[in-house]
Each structure stands twice: as C-alpha cells, then as structure tokens.
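Table S2 (continued). Query chain:
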Amino acid sequence: MCIMATPGGELPSALSDAVAGDVPVALAGLVILLVLWKLWMLTPLGLTIYAVGDNPVGAFRSGLNVNGSRLACYAVSGTLSALAGLFLGLQTGSGDPIIGTAYTLNSITAAVLGGVAFTGGVGTMRGVLAGSLLLTVMISVMFFLGISAFYQYIAQGAVIIFAVTLPLLRRA
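Corresponding output:
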C-alpha cells in the first residue's frame, strides 16, 4: 500500500473520457434520478421521510418510525453523495478528496433558492432543480463578466440571505 504525501492522484483516462463533457450521460443521469425520485415519493418510506422532516413529533404520534426513516435518509444521502463524488472524479479525472469542497456553498444555495427550508420538510424536487439552474446561470454570467471568485461567493451568500429572509418578510 502506498500513502501519498499530499492528496491527489488520477483516475483511468478511459473512465474519464466516457463521462467528461458528455451531455447525454449527464442528462440520462438526471432523468434516471427524477424517475427514481418520483417512485421514491410513492413509497411509504419516502412519504415517511418527508413527514419526519416536516414534523418529527407529529410523525411519531401518527405511528411512523421516526428513527428508522432518519436512518434510511442518512443511508440514501450517503449513497447519493458517493455517486456524486464518483461522477465528479470521473468528470475531472482527479482522485483528490478535497476537489468537491467548492460545491458545498453551491448546493446549499441551490436548495435554498429552490424553496427548501433549513428546518426540513419543506421543498420540492422541481424547486431544487429550478434553483440549481438559476444558480448555474448566475455563476456563468458572473464568470463571463470577469467577476472574481471572491465576489461570486459574496453574491451567493447574499442570495442565500435574500432567499431565507423573503418568506419571513412575506409572513410579517
């Protein structure tokens, strides 16, 4: 076994060439994910997870298995995170474990823009996809305008603050 002094490495180029920049592969993955999401939300476990995210006490009082649904949610989240990591590694051809750090703020921003509440139980897949597309367009426009990455992070933070406070202002 070889332990590297610094993170890094590369994936086989044949695997990277099969995925990198190939729009049909990404679109096929998105379509498969949407179909699986729709099927998931038709199952009792999918509905239980959604109910537990909205109101865990009410879900427990309704007789739903809160701990089991949370465990299933963590398992599904871990599986999807592993698949996303594999896809990112295949796209970039890199085996660096910290390559996805820049996507943390992007994923939170896309979810909040899509209407997902930090408290859970609120939000739709459509909203997250719309938020993701809006964020992608926003980042692309800022990149082509020559705005530095520092200010792009500030703009994303401002969008998160706006998206969180807008529902609060509507209620008030």
